[in-house]
Amino acid sequence: MIGVLLQQDIQFFSSPDTGSTRLTLIILGIVVAVGVLAALMSTRRGGGGKSGGPRGGLNRQAKKLGLSTDQRRVLKHLVVGLNLQNPERILTNSAYMTHALRRRIEQLDSSDDPEHQREQEKSLLFTVKRSLQNATLKLRVMPSSRQIRIGQLVNLQTAEDTRHESMVASNVQNGLGIEVPYTRRAGAMNWKKGTPLQVSFVADQDRMYSFRTRVMGHNKVGGASVMFLEHATNIRQSQKRRSPRREYDRPCYYYPVTVIAVGKGRKAKKQAFVDKNRRIFGRFEDLSSGGCALRTQIPLSAGSILKIDFEAADGSAMSVFGRVRSVDRSRARGRVMHIMFTRVSRKNLNQIQSYVYGLVEAD
């Protein structure tokens, strides 16, 4: 009986069908493949996709800060080229951005790309730096005008909206001493006691402050006529200079430029001629991507065009063209011309900005 049962049990299990086994394996293979593909797609969305991950987040934040398509493109090149692990930090940390910018420019200088392509990318990177600074600007407050340094250049504005440039000659507990402005037409601007004025100045390279005050009186400081103003407290930053500037103590030579019309009628064209016979010595006080301040014994009048030859921070020769915007009153060591650049090559402009932003130091 037992033998019959065993025989029946053995006969109950039929031999496996080869076709069914293959079908089962195929189905299992498809399921596994779909699972692996789904996992890969999920990982891509979370870490390295176009719209996700660190780079995707960087692109979104950069767009919110107002960076253009080209600016975001070179920013991505910087992140990829330097393999930054925390790329979003460059949007909020100025020092980190400066360090990354220095490394990226070193990479570009050592690359085999054409020079015009390298300089174009550098130029865009500097616009990114400037845009980020302006976008993340935090307005500051200067506790008191007693903190303004002696030698600080200031702009004075009257109630009649006339403007004059001068400098701080003294800063004592009782008042802020400003050199009396001087003009060729009106002479010394000895405003009466109680005259209201608005004082504007730039501190920390690119932060502009302004405050209202009144004339307290006049005195002599070091032989110069000085006007003392009432101190002010809680001086708020009004805006940020469009082009940050940096002190630059270097000699230079400049030449007057004459613009004349060549030809007649509709074919007439303006041409600029550099007067190479009039080479005048000067010295930089500060430098920015938009202009400079030059001290000289022989200043050109406001509105004059000039060419400036000087050495860049790395010692290489550089030439720029500019227009004199204003000339400070006479000083013991000459006068100061404030110049706006009108023509600068992209390569020279990048060199200037590298110095202004602290990527290189003067030799």
How would you characterize the overall build of this protein?
- This protein has 363 residues and is α+β, with helices and mostly antiparallel strands.
- The chain has three domains: 53-135, no CATH class; 141-240, Electron Transport, Fmn-binding Protein, Chain A (Pnp Oxidase, Chain A, Roll); 245-356, predicted glycosyltransferase like domains (Thrombin, subunit H, Beta Barrel), CATH 2.40.10.
- Helices cover 32% and strands 35% of the residues.
- It has a six-stranded antiparallel barrel. A six-stranded antiparallel beta barrel has the order 12-14-15-18-17-16.
- A hairpin with a 2-residue loop joins β3 and β4 (175-179).
- α4 crosses α6 (115-135) and α5 (94-109) packs antiparallel against α6 (115-135).
- Residues 1-15 and 43-52 have low confidence and may be disordered.
